[in-house]
Amino acid sequence: MPKPTSTPRRRRPLKEADVPGLAARRAALRLLDAVLRRGEPLETALHAATQGLTRGSDKGLAHAIAADVLRWLPDLDALIDTVTEQPIPPDVKSRMVLRMALVQILLLETPPHAAISTALPLTEGGPRRLVHGVLGSLIRAEAKLPEVPTLPADVTERWAGQWGIEMVSVAARALARRAPIDLSFADAAEAERITDMMGGTSLMPGHVRLDHDVSVPDLPGYTQGHWWVQDISASLPARLAGVGEGRIALDLCAAPGGKTMQLASAGWRVTALDKSAKRLERLAENLVRSGLGTQVEVAQGDALTWEPAAPADLILLDAPCSATGIFRRHPDVLYRAGPRQIAEMAELQGALLDRAAAWLKPGGMLIYATCSLERAEGEDQIAAFLASHPGFAVQPVQTEELPAGIAPTPEGFVRTLPGTLEELGGADGFFVARLVLNA
Ligand SMILES: C[S@@+](CC[C@H](N)C(=O)[O-])C[C@H]1O[C@@H](n2cnc3c(N)ncnc32)[C@H](O)[C@@H]1O
């Protein structure tokens, strides 16, 4: 009798769900592609890249992998290059997969087998053996990252040229640390009352600084809208406006509304303008949460074409910019903001300043701010504005108006750099100028 032949069982192809954690890594790969290839901001790309991830922890992991790759990219590449005979081209998927796996092993405490098993499927027909070999060699050699990351060469050159090479070392140190969380309070007395309860420190009235790992929605006062998250540097432009006493302020680039809320809580009657309907939705939510909406009129429009109903006592122009000052929290700016983007932003800022200049009452105040570490978007911008608008003068910022550890520049501006308040956790890079229109 012939033996029954057993039909060979065909292996089911592995699905995404069969490899635990693969979907999160694939999302991280999409995020990095969005930032490095398409020039999108990491936060903007997050929603689309993590669609389909149901667990918050997977979204968090995808974001953490992508952000750490951006923080350490030159150092990750240097490690990879130590164990390959032929350099892997900079923009191929296998290099990105290697960077991601190394970040997990060296920084995020992912067990090497988990980092490798989720890396290999991502190569998709690419050089799996090469990826496996590079990771194996680096693990055996107990490869390590330096204590302080290396900034991209073009950023190093640009910042060293403007601020000196020491600034670049300090910026690199800042990139290695997690930035603290700063809160701005509508009511300074409330900040004083709950600083200790929150386990924070206060660097100015109405300010509380907390560790980077607190859960913001769980903090006291979140649902009541007593405060909002705002880096100490970002809180300075509106502070320099002083109390409003019912006077009229135009906040020309207002969303998501951190500075609008500061102005409203200081007694200004604010018109908050922004071009972006989506960002204005967040501003509206913030106004509801803080209960400050009654002092604010919200308008959607482009400040290059929009016109105010009446001249203002104060104009705050927190202008769109390269955002290089917020590289600690948003390391994608190190790769997205180059000379072209900076020049385009500087042109837009100049045009916005020109518009704003025509809307002030005589004696009115114009506060210009950018979260940029580029002089073209700060000092140079204001020098050009003053040269072409002789009716304006600098109203110098005084030391007493700033937190201890931040001093005005000799010109009377505020310029925060990566070394600002370093021993207290640092501060975002910002430029602020306060100008007055002669009466
Ligand atoms: C630096 S952000 C403002 C942050 C805001 N002031 C805060 O404190 O929350 C710059 C804003 O400018 C807006 N913007 C860019 N170009 C604009 C324009 N031409 N007119 C009005 N708003 C503009 C952007 O939509 C963005 O919300």
From TrEMBL:
S-adenosyl-L-methionine binds at C253, A254, A255, P256, G257, G258, K259, D274, D302, D318. It comes from Sphingobium fluviale. Keywords: Methyltransferase, RNA-binding, S-adenosyl-L-methionine, Transferase. GO terms for biological process: regulation of DNA-templated transcription; RNA methylation. Belongs to the class I-like SAM-binding methyltransferase superfamily. RsmB/NOP family. This is SAM-dependent methyltransferase. GO terms for molecular function: RNA binding; RNA methyltransferase activity. InterPro entries: MeTrfase_RsmB-F_NOP2_cat (IPR049560), MeTrfase_RsmB-F_NOP2_dom (IPR001678), NusB-like_sf (IPR035926), NusB_RsmB_TIM44 (IPR006027), RCMT (IPR023267), SAM-dependent_MTases_sf (IPR029063). The active site is at C371. Residues 160-438 form the SAM-dependent MTase RsmB/NOP-type domain.
